[in-house]
Protein: VOC family protein
Organism: Streptomyces luteolus
Amino acid sequence: MASRLNPYLSFDGDARQALEFYKEVFGGELSLHTFGDFGGTAGGAEADQIMHGMLETPTGFTLMGADTPPGMEFKSGSNFSVSLSGDDDAELRGYWEKLSADGAVSVPLEKQMWGDVFGMCTDKFGVPWMVDIGEPQS
C-alpha cells in the first residue's frame, strides 16, 4: 500500500454519529472499531466509543476519526491531526524523524496493541501528526 496523508479528527464521545454523518455527505465505505474491540477499556460506555474510524469515498477522499481516549482531555478547536499511514517502514520512519525533530512527542513511535507501529507528535510549527506503520500486505 502506498503511503497516504489525510486529516484525522478527534471527537468528544460522538465520533460514531459524526463519521456516519460524513458517510451520508460523501458516500463510501465506513469502518468503525471501538475501544472495546481492542480491549482498551474495562467495559462501560467507553467500550462502545470509537477508537478508530475510517471513511473511504468513491472520489478518493479518506477521512479518519476517533473519540478522545479515556484519560485524555478533549480540546475543542484543536481536534485534528494530520495522519500519515502505510506499510513502507523506512519511508514512514523517515517522515517521523523529521516531523518529531525539534517538536514534541506525545506517543513514541512503537508497536501498539492493534499490531501496527504508531506514534504521535507535534512538529516545531505546532501541527499535530500521527504516523501509523502497518504490516505490508501481500
Observations:
- The mean pLDDT is 89.
- Helices lie at 15-26, 89-100.
- The beta strands are 4-11, 29-34, 50-56, 62-67, 80-86, 104-111, 117-122, 128-133.
